[in-house]
Amino acid sequence: MILETIEKENDIKNVNPEDWNLLAEEIREFLIRKISVTGGHLGSNLGAVELTMALHLSLNLPEDKIVWDVGHQSYTHKLLTGRRSGFENLRKYGGMSGFPKRKESECDCFDTGHSSTSISAGLGLVKARDLRGEKHTIISVIGDGSLTGGMAYEALNNAARMKKNFIIILND
Ligand SMILES: Cc1ncc(C[n+]2csc(CCOP(=O)(O)OP(=O)(O)O)c2C)c(N)n1
Predict the structure, then answer these.
(1) Contact between 170 and 147 (Cβ < 8 Å)
(2) I want to staple 116 with a disulfide (CB 3.0 to 4.6 A). Which of 39, 49, 73, 151 is the partner?
């Protein structure tokens, strides 16, 4: 299994491009198998497999930052950052959270659960990066449902005014 060769962040970059589709299939199969036992968000995670793989192939974690809106689509991100075994105890007391958690991984930059916060949070990270003169990439990933929250629009207005290097991905 290709998925078993991925032990930590950036390992996905060693996967042959010809095998990317197969890896996506394995991830989906893994998620269905695990979530059917523990419960958890299914559709949102199945819908973000290729998007997450593309981000992990393009970015350099943990230096670069991905801010997941809600965070209910972050299971592939957890799988690609060394947390495969955590799915045994997903959302159990003392087990792995169903949402990004900074205490779980350096690759989780913002604790979420609420919707519509990712653009504001990303902007905060952008401001901090620029004040420190750092150059890493910051990407907020937001779904169409979460984009209906007013906080997201306030943040979009702010982002447009700040004119800083900042990427927002709308996952419709
Ligand atoms: C502040 C707040 N309000 C409501 C919710 C409930 N909630 C969970 S996911 C979600 C939106 C999901 O839509 P989308 O971002 O498009 O993701 P999808 O589930 O469709 O993949 C909402 C409103 C929440 N998590 N936080």
Answers:
(1) yes
(2) 151
